[in-house]
Amino acid sequence: MADKSGTTILVVDDAPENIQLLSRIFSKCGYQIQVAENGAQAVEIAQATLPDIILLDINMPVLGGFEACVQLKKDERTCDIPVIFISALDSIDDKSNGFRVGGVDYILKPFEYEEVQARVETHLALRHLRVQLEQANQALAVRVEELTNSRELLAERERRLSAFVNALPNLSFVLDEQGHYLEVIANETSLLAARPDQLIGRLIEEVLPPKENAKIMDAIGQTIQTGKIQVIEYRIPVISGGERWFEGRVALMEKGDLGSGKVVFMASDITERIQLYHEVQRLANLDVLTGCFNRRHFMEKAAQEIHRAMRYNRPLSLLMMDIDHFKDVNDQNGHQVGDQLLCNLVLLCQKQLRNDDILGRYGGEEFVVLMPETPSEGAMLASERLRINIEKMKINTAKGSLSVTVSMGLASLERGFDKTHTLDTLIKSADLALYAAKAAGRNCVKTE
Asked: In terms of DSSP bridges, do strands 358-361 and 406-413 run parallel, antiparallel, or are they unpaired?
């Protein structure tokens, strides 16, 4: 996202001062700004101009933010535009509704412009990566279609093999039903598992890892049996060093009696596409500042764990944790120190918690931990131990050494709980316990 001149941000708010502030912030950064005073205007402008991202207030006349987001997500033209809610509404239900109707983020008013700018740039970067991935897949689909069409025009073995080899940028093989390399044609020999002269006559199982050998041999068997092209993805070590991902297409060349036959195996290097996909997944699942799970991915994993606990009648606990007086830390020391504190807290939690525990950033200074297979008594011991270690933690910053405390709210599902319990009810229970901890003087753990 280096060149921002072609990137458009639609700012929607019924308060002129908020529109002016956000417009000034992002105009200075080089973005193009569009504005709307209510949800109805926002939907109309978005459908006509297709902005790159939308900053959307909730309480507005004519059409509210939630309703506007629903309309945007139902329209094919606007459904992929990221929507970030910016609102003074801070209840759990309001935040949950924001994500439920399709928002990608939720920022509370009054906001810090550095936070808004960072979140906007993060979601713009995610959208840019998704577009790149879609373009890569479209290009690959075009190439696959071209190869398939070429095959249908071939009349004999030599012409067919030549056409496939010329159409592919990487590797082509002729293999028999047992997996012997009969021919090896490589435009880039560095992508082979061994030199061509070392492959001819050998079996795939003698060259490739067992898992990949089984996958390729199954594709060969299916092709000879059905005559249909098989498409697989696999990863192998190559001559140039390291491992590369390939897409292999297996087409029937000739078929004999009793399951014998030969196939053409064409391999295209798709390592960059796979790496791009994993990078998109990583950015989509992690909090950009602290590196722990973001709220969306935490909720997905937590829902899976609760489903498992309900199915097998197993205990489970959820801990909500809020840094005491975090606003004072930011006000007195600056947001860089505040960010450093958040990162140090996450590192300590990751060291303290079990591998099976799930840590996520729920809000600005609020974190949540899901503890599978953990009843309330064990969860209380683990939470109290974590609270004490956080209290002992010393953070060396440019402003000097700092220490913090946290308030914690704990909710648990024990054996025999009924199926009316959901992730939402568990979070609400933990949140009520967190409020009780704050009311009790902070720096303590309270249960539901």
From this structure: unpaired
Radius of gyration, CA atoms only, the chain: 28
Q: Residue ranges of the alpha helices (H) in 31-78?
A: 39-49, 65-74
* Partners of 53 in beta bridges: 9
Q: What angle do CA 47, 53, 56 make, to 5 degrees?
A: 85
From CA 182, how far away is CA 174, in angstroms rounded?
A: 5
Contacts of 185 (CB under 8 A, 6+ apart): 165, 171, 172, 173
Domains and CATH numbers, the chain: 8-113 (3.40.50.2300), 154-275 (3.30.450.20), 286-447 (3.30.70.270)
Peptide bond into 110 cis (omega under 30): yes
Please report the pLDDT score of residue 414 as a whole number.
78
CA–CA gap between residue 31 and residue 364 (Å, rounded): 25
Residue 331 near residue 386, CB atoms below 8 Å: no
The rounded distance, in Å, linking the Cα atoms of 147 and 129 is 27
User: The pTM is what?
Assistant: 0.47
User: How confident is the model over 414-424, as pLDDT tens digits?
Assistant: 755 566 678 88
User: What string of DSSP letters covers 319-336?
Assistant: EEEEETTHHHHHHHH-HH
Task: Dump pLDDT digits (tens) for 122-172.
Answer: 888 888 888 888 888 888 888 877 776 666 665 466 666 566 555 555 688
Helix (H) or strand (E) holding 395: strand 395-397
Nearest partner of 269 among 295, 240, 306, judged by Cα:
240
Rounded to the nearest 10 degrees, the angle between the axes of helix 295-312 and helix 271-285 is: 80
| Phi, psi of 152, rounded to the nearest 5 degrees | -65, -20
Q: Which helix (H) or strand (E) holds 345?
A: helix 335-352
Cβ–Cβ under 8 Å, residues 207 and 192 = no
Pairing between β-strand 445-447 and β-strand 406-413 as defined by DSSP bridges? parallel
For β-strands 230-237 and 83-87, DSSP reports them as unpaired
* pLDDT tens for each residue of 66-92: 999 999 999 999 998 999 998 888 888
pLDDT in tens, 435-444: 999 999 999 9
- Residue 96 neighbours by CB under 8 Å, 6+ apart: 424
